[in-house]
Design goal:
The complex is a heterodimer.
Chain A (H helix, E strand, L loop, with lengths): L23 H6 L14 E7 L5 E7 L1 H5 L3 E5 L9 E2 L6 E2 L5 E2 L5 E7 L2 H9 L2 E6 L6 H6 L12 E9 L2 H7 L2 E9 L11 E6 L5 E5 L4 H12 L6 E5 L15 H11 L3 E4 L2 H7 L2 E2 L2 E9 L5 E11 L7 H10 L9 E9 L6 E2 L6 H19 L3 H8 L19 H10 L27 E14 L8 E11 L2 E7 L9 H13 L3 E4 L17 H28 L6 E4 L2 E4 L3 E5 H5 L4 E8 L18 E14 L4 E12 L6 H20 L5 E2 L2 E2 L18 E6 L16 H18 L5 E2 L3 H8 L1
Helix pairs in contact in A: 6-7, 9-10, 10-11, 10-17, 11-12, 13-14, 16-17
Chain B lengths: L1 E3 L4 H10 L3 E4 L5 H6 L7 E4 L9 E4 L2 E5 L4 H8 L4 H8 L4 H6 L2 H7 L7 H6 L3 E6 L2 E6 H4 E3 L2 E2 L6 E8 L5 E6 L10 E8 L4 E7 L9 H10 L10 H14 L10 H25 L1
Parallel strand pairs in B: 1-3, 2-3
Antiparallel strand pairs in B: 4-5, 5-10, 6-7, 6-10, 8-9, 11-12, 12-13
Classes of the chains: A alpha+beta, B alpha+beta.
Chain lengths: 767, 284
C-alpha cells in the first residue's frame, strides 16, 4: 500500500522535515542519562584487571590478597565464568577472561566487585598474575605470509583471504599503455566516542539478569552473553541505556558479561564504567592497512586493469575482520569501471590491539588506496584529477569488482561535475593568525604557507552484505490518549546519537497522519533490529516502522470500511482524521479508536544478497551502494609541517532527504572523522603496546581544525529502499581522507603515502 | 583524603607547614587529571581558591606581580599590553574552560617542561615569590626548574606570585602543536627584546628536561642586532640565531614528536619570531 494519496493537511514534522530531536534538550543541558550515569541502590562497582603484555602465557593467578581487601565482594577469573568461556561477534574465539594465554595488551584477566570504584582499583593492584612473556607477533605482513611466525590461533594467522578475479588480468596488463604503482598505509584509528563503555547488571529473583548497557546491537550481544552466563536468552533481559556515540566500537562486547558474572556471583547490582584510558583498551579499533596497488590505463585515461594486495591487521581476535575483509575486497577498486581486476585482501591475527568495526568498515582503507592511485594516474597522464575520475566513473548499469551490476542511480560523473563547479574559497586572510596553520599558536604569519587542492571519491555498501539475513522489527500501537491519536513505537534499534528516534516519529506522522508519537525504550522484549551500523537503521528500522504503520493503517481502513460503508481503497489518514475521497472527513481517529488500540508488529527485510565466491570474489554481495565525493582545500606550512584545512566541499547522493539537519550533521561528522584519519588520529602501537591511550595524545579534530563545509545533496531515489533513501552516515568518512591527503600532496609536491600525515612526514620528506 | 580550604594566606602557609604532603590546587587542570587517572594519590589537597591575597595582579616600578590564582583568561584580558609574550602563551593553553581555571603559578608548581607559561617567563627574566611560615624568598625563574616535574619549591613553601617586568620591547611566543587548538606543546619558543638595555631574552619549552633559555643565542643576538641603525634583519643573522636556539635544545623522542623535529621546529620558530619582533622594533 502506498502512502496516503489524498492529504489535505500535510502532517507537520513528517518525513522530509527537520523536527527537533526528542532527546535533544536533555543532551544539550546535560540532563540526559548516559550509561555512565546509571545508578542502583545497593550496587557494587566492577573493575577489570587487564594484561600489561601483548603476548604471554599465564602461569598463575593469585587472588587471595585482593579478596581479603576490605570492601571487596568478589574477585573472579576464567574459572568463574558460568558457561561458555569464549564469545565472538562472527566467530567464537575471544575468552571472557584470559585462560592460559593473553594475546593483546589490555586483554581482561580478572574482575573485582567492590563497594567503591577506588576500592575496586586498589584490589585490582593486589591480584598477582605470573606471566611468561612471549615475543609478540606485530607485523601483519609477517602474519599473512611468513610460515615461521608463531600461530596465534589454531587455524593459523589468516582470518580471511578474499580474492577478487574479474576479467583477465594478463589481458589488461598487455593492453595498458601506462602503469602506476603505489604502496599505501593507513594507521590505526579509534572511534573515540565520548561516552565510555558503561552499564549496569541487576540480578533478578528468577536467577536471571537485567542488563542496561550502551551498545549498538542488543540482540547480537544477547546471543553472546547468554551462553557465557549459562542462562537461556529469555533470562537475560537487555535495555538500551544512553549511548554516547558508537561508530562501530560498541559492536563487540565490552563489560556486558563481566558485569553480569559479578552480579550473579554477588547477588547485587553491578555497575562498570571504563575511564578514557581503559576505553582505549576496551574496544576494537579501525584496521590498519598495508596496501599495494597497480593500475594500468590507456593514454586517454581509460582504466584497463587494477591489481591490489590489501593486508588488514585484525589484531588478537576475529571480531568483524571477516566482513571488513569482504568490504575492502569487493570495493577495492572503488566506483570505477575496470575491465580486469585482481585483488587479494587478507585479514590477519597479530598481537596488536583487536580491530573490528569502525564507520566505513574496510571501505575506508581501500578508498585511500584507490584514490591515491587515481591521483597518481592523473599526474602520470598530466590530466586533471577530476577528469581521470570522470572518464572511469561508474553509472547505473556498470559492473563492480564483485561482478555486481549497479541497478540503481549512481550519477558519479554528474557529482564530479557539480564538485568542479563549486566555487573555490578565497585566499586566507593572513591578518588573523587563526586562519593560518598553527592558528592561535602563532607559528606563521604567512611564511612557508602553500595552498593545495585535492579530491576524493568513495563507494560504500549500505546494510549487511554477503547473504546476511538482514532485518529489523517494529511494533506500532495506535491508541487514543487524552483525546489525541497517539502512536507508540517499539523497536530494539539502538539510538547512538544518529537521530533514529527522531526519524521513527517522522515516519509515523507521515504514514498515519497524526502528530503525537512516543518512542518506547529499546529493549529485547521485541524482535531483533540488527545493528546500528552499516548506515542501515534509517533503511532497516525505518523500513520496519513504515511497514508496521502500513499494517496499522490497513487495519484502520478495513474497520472503517465496514463501519462507514466506504471502500477501503478510497480512505486516507490526515490531520488525525479518517478521510474518504468523496465524502470527506469520516471520523476523528481518536473517536474512531475509542478504547480499542490498533497494533501491528512487522519485520522488514532488504532484498537478499550473495556471499562472495571464495576463489573469484564474484557475487551480488551488496544490497545498496552509496557515493560521496569531496574536495579539500588545505594550507600547509611546508617549513613546519603544520596545516589548516581551509574548506571541505562534498556532493553526496542520499536518495531522499529524510531530515536535513540530521543528514547534514552526518555528512559534517563523517567528513570530520575522515579529516581525523587524514591528519591527526592514530593509536600509536609499538611492539604491541599502545603509546597514547588518552585524549591528550590521541588527537581528534576540534572545531578549529574542522573547516566550514559546502554541501550539495542529491536525491536520486533507490526504488528498493523505503522512501527511496540511501544510507548516508558512512560515505563521507571514506572520501574526505584521500581528498585531504591529495591536497597536502598538491601543496607540498610530496608522495605522502601513509595516513595520518603528521608534521614530520612533511618536514623530513622535504629535506 | 583530607581537603583543606584556607581563607587567608597565613592559614594556607600554616596548613602547608603542618602537612607538607598536602598538594596545592587552584585551577586543578593538572591535579585533577592526575587524580582521575589514579596517577597521584596525595594525602590531602590544599585548595587555594579561597585565599584573597593571591588573586589578581598589581604593578610596582615596572614590575607586574601576578597572583598565584590569577587565571590565564584574566592574564589575556588584563595584561596583554604589559606582558604580550605571556598573554600570547596564555592564549594557546587548552580550551576556554581550561584557561578560565588554569594559572601560570600552577604551571610552575607542576613543573612540566611542556607548560606554556615557562618560555615567556624565561624570556622576560621573571622572578618567583615563594613563601612559607619560615619566611619568604625570591628566585630567578631559571633557578626554579630542577628537572622533569621537579622544582625548587620546598615541601613547606607555596608560590605566592610571579613577578614579570612590563615589556621593554617587542615580544613573541610561538608553539608547535599537532592540532590547531587544545594541544600540549611539541615544542615552544619565546623571545623578548629589551630595547633599553639592547638585550634579548629567550625561553624554550618541551625542548629539554626543564624549560630553559638559549643563552648563547641571546648573547649572539644582543651583540649582532643593528639596534641603532634598525636595519632590516639579515637572513644569515636570523639563520644563525635559529641554529643557536636549536643547539640549546636537548629534546627527546616521544609520542608527540621526535627530537629531530623539535630541533628543526625550534630553529624555524626562532627565526620567524625574531623576524616579527625585529619588524616591530624597527617600526616603533
Amino acid at each position: 500500500m502506498s502512502a496516503p494519496a489524498n492529504i489535505d493537511a500535510p502532517t507537520r514534522d513528517g518525513v522530509g522535515d527537520s523536527p527537533q530531536r526528542p532527546d535533544g534538550i536533555g543532551k544539550v543541558t546535560g540532563e540526559f542519562a548516559y550509561a555512565s550515569d546509571l545508578w542502583h541502590d545497593d550496587m557494587l562497582w566492577g573493575a577489570t584487571l587487564r594484561s600489561p603484555h601483548p603476548y604471554a602465557r599465564i602461569r598463575s593467578i593469585d587472588i587471595s590478597a585482593a579478596l581479603a581487601h576490605p570492601g571487596v565482594y568478589a574477585v573472579l577469573t576464567h574459572e568463574d565464568v558460568p558457561g561458555a568461556k569464549y564469545y565472538g561477534l562472527d566467530h567464537v574465539d575471544q575468552p571472557v577472561l584470559a585462560i592460559d594465554t593473553v594475546r593483546y595488551q589490555g586483554e581482561p584477566v580478572a574482575l573485582v566487585a567492590a563497594e567503591h570504584p577506588e576500592i575496586a582499583r586498589r584490589a585490582l593492584a593486589k591480584i598477582e598474575v605470573s606471566y611468561d612473556v612471549l615475543e609478540p607477533l606485530t607485523d601483519p605482513r609477517k602474519a599473512a605470509f611468513d610460515a615461521t611466525a608463531p600461530a596465534l590461533h589454531e587455524h593459523g594467522n589468516i582470518v580471511r583471504h578474499q580474492p577478487v578475479r574479474f576479467g583477465k588480468i594478463s589481458e589488461g596488463q598487455r593492453a595498458a599503455e601506462v602503469v602506476v604503482r603505489g604502496e599505501y598505509q593507513v594507521g590505526m584509528q579509534d572511534q573515540a566516542f565520548l561516552g565510555p563503555e558503561a552499564g549496569l547488571a541487576v540480578p533478578t529473583e528468577d536467577g536471571g539478569i537485567e542488563l542496561y548497557v550502551a551498545t549498538q546491537w542488543m540482540h547480537v550481544d544477547l546471543r553472546q552473553i547468554a551462553p557465557c552466563l549459562a542462562l537461556p536468552e529469555d533470562k537475560v533481559r537487555m535495555t538500551l541505556s544512553g549511548v554516547g556515540g558508537a561508530f562501530g566500537a560498541r559492536e563487540d562486547l565490552s563489560m556486558q558479561v563481566h558485569a553480569a558474572m559479578l552480579a550473579l556471583h554477588t547477588g547485587k547490582p553491578i555497575k562498570i564504567v571504563y575511564n578514557r584510558e581503559e576505553s582505549f583498551f576496551g574496544h576494537v579499533h579501525r584496521h590498519p592497512a598495508l596496501m599495494r596497488y597497480e593500475h594500468g590505463a590507456w593514454r586517454d585515461g581509460t582504466l584497463v586493469y587494477a591489481k591490489a594486495e590489501i593486508i588488514l591487521d585484525g589484531g588478537a581476535y576475529t571480531s568483524s575482520t571477516m566482513n571488513v575483509v569482504a568490504n575492502a575486497a569487493s570495493l577495492g577498486v572503488g566506483p570505477y569501471s575496470v575491465p580486469h581486476i585482481e585483488i587479494d585482501t587478507y585479514g590477519v591475527y597479530t598481537n596488536n590491539p583487536p580491530c573490528g568495526a569502525m564507520r566505513g568498515f574496510g571501505a575506508v582503507q581501500a578508498c585511500y588506496g584507490y584514490e591515491s592511485q587515481m591521483d597518481r594516474l592523473a599526474a602520470e597522464l598530466d590530466m586533471h584529477p577530476l577528469e581521470v575520475r570522470r572518464i572511469n566513473a561508474i553509472s547505473q548499469g556498470s559492473v563492480l569488482a564483485n561482478g555486481q551490476v549497479v541497478d540503481t542511480p549512481a550519477p558519479l560523473a554528474e557529482m564530479l561535475d557539480r564538485l568542479a563547479a563549486t566555487p573555490q574559497p578565497e585566499p586566507a586572510d593572513q591578518t588573523d593568525i587563526r586562519n593560518l596553520p598553527g592558528g592561535a599558536a602563532n607559528t606563521t604569519h604567512g611564511e612557508g604557507v602553500r595552498r593545495g587542492i585535492g579530491y576524493g571519491v568513495g563507494l560504500k555498501n549500505i546494510c549487511f552484505s554477503e547473504g546476511a539475513d538482514d532485518y529489523s522489527t517494529a511494533r506500532v500501537r495506535l491508541a487514543a490518549v487524552g483525546g489525541e491519536p497517539t502512536a507508540l513505537v517499539h523497536t530494539a534499534a539502538a539510538e547512538v546519537g544518529q537521530g533514529l528516534v527522531t526519524l521513527q516519529g517522522q515516519i509515523v506522522r507521515t504514514e498515519l497522519g497524526i502528530e503525537r508519537v512516543v518512542i518506547a525504550p529499546a529493549d529485547t522484549q521485541i524482535g531483533d533490529a540488527g545493528s546500528t551500523s552499516a548506515s542501515r537503521q534509517s533503511y532497516m528500522t525505518g523500513g520496519a516502522v513504515k511497514v508496521a504503520c502500513e499494517a496499522v493503517r490497513e487495519m484502520i481502513f478495513e474497520r472503517a470500511a465496514d463501519q462507514f460503508g466506504v471502500p477501503a481503497d478510497e480512505l486516507s489518514l490526515a490531520g488525525g482524521k479518517i478521510v474518504a475521497q468523496c465524502a470527506g472527513v469520516l471520523a476523528a481517529l481518536a473517536d474512531f479508536l475509542g478504547t480499542e488500540p490498533i497494533e501491528a508488529v512487522r519485520e522488514f527485510h532488504h532484498r537478499p544478497t550473495q556471499r562472495m565466491d571464495p576463489v573469484t570474489g564474484q557475487g551480488d554481495s551488496h544490497t545498496q551502494l552509496a557515493l560521496c565525493v569531496h574536495r579539500a582545500v588545505v594550507d600547509v606550512d611546508v617549513e613546519l609541517g603544520l596545516l589548516k584545512v581551509v574548506e571541505l566541499a562534498a556532493v553526496q547522493d542520499v536518495g531522499k532527504v529524510l531530515h536535513r539537519n540530521s543528514l547534514e550533521g552526518q555528512i559534517h561528522g563523517g567528513t570530520a572523522q575522515g579529516l581525523g584519519l587524514a591528519v591527526l588520529e592514530e593509536i600509536q602501537v609499538v611492539d604491541g603496546l599502545i603509546r597514547n591511550p588518552s585524549f591528550t595524545d590521541y588527537l581528534i579534530p576540534t572545531i578549529l581544525d574542522m573547516p566550514p563545509m559546502r554541501l550539495d545533496i542529491l536525491e536520486n531515489p533507490d526504488p528498493h529502499a523505503p522512501y527511496g533513501l540511501r544510507g548516508a552516515g558512512e560515505p563521507p568518512t571514506l572520501s574526505s581522507t584521500p581528498a585531504i591527503a591529495a591536497a597536502i600532496r598538491d601543496a607540498t609536491g610530496l608522495p605522502l603515502t601513509r595516513v595520518p600525515i603528521g608534521p614530520e612526514d612533511i618536514i623530513h620528506s622535504v629535506k | 583524603m583530607e581537603f583543606y580550604r584556607p581563607t587567608s594566606w597565613r592559614e594556607a602557609l600554616e596548613i602547608r607547614a603542618a602537612q607538607p604532603d598536602a598538594l596545592p590546587i587552584t585551577g586543578g587542570t593538572d591535579v585533577m587529571v592526575e587524580l582521575n587517572f589514579d596517577r597521584a594519590r596525595p594525602a590531602a589537597l590544599l585548595d587555594l581558591t579561597g585565599v584573597p591575597e593571591i588573586t589578581g595582579w598589581s604593578e610596582r616600578e615596572g614590575q607586574i606581580q601576578i597572583g598565584a590564582s590569577m587565571s590565564y583568561t584574566a592574564i589575556i584580558a588584563e595584561l596583554a599590553d604589559r606582558l604580550p609574550c605571556l598573554a600570547l602563551a596564555a592564549r594557546t593553553v587548552g580550551s576556554p574552560q581550561i584557561r578560565n581555571r588554569g594559572t601560570a603559578a600552577g604551571n610552575l608548581g607542576a613543573g612540566s617542561p611542556a607548560g606554556d607559561s615557562h618560555p615567556p617567563l624565561l624570556a622576560t627574566g621573571a622572578k618567583v615569590h615563594l613563601e612559607s611560615v619560615r619566611g619568604s624568598r625570591e628566585l630567578s625563574i631559571d633557578q626554579f626548574y630542577l628537572g622533569v616535574k621537579r622544582t625548587a619549591l620546598e615541601p613547606d613553601e607555596l608560590i605566592r606570585s610571579i613577578e614579570v617586568p612590563a615589556a621593554r620591547g617587542p615580544q613573541q611566543f610561538a608553539k608547535i602543536g599537532t592540532r590547531n587548538a587544545m594541544v600540549i606543546a611539541v615544542c615552544s619558543f619565546a623571545i623578548a627584546l629589551d630595547a633599553g638595555s639592547r638585550t634579548v631574552g629567550t625561553g624554550l619549552g618541551s625542548a629539554a628536561p626543564t624549560p630553559r633559555q638559549a643563552t648563547d643565542a641571546q648573547d649572539f643576538l644582543a651583540e649582532a642586532l643593528p639596534w641603532a641603525d634598525r636595519d632590516p634583519l639579515a637572513e644569515e643573522l636570523a639563520n644563525r640565531f635559529g641554529e643557536l636556539v636549536a643547539a640549546a635544545a636537548v629534546p627527546i623522542d616521544d609520542v608527540r614528536g621526535s627530537a629531530r623535529y623539535r630541533r628543526h621546529a625550534l630553529a624555524v620558530l626562532a627565526r620567524r619570531t625574531l623576524g616579527w619582533a625585529w619588524e616591530e622594533y624597527r617600526c616603533a
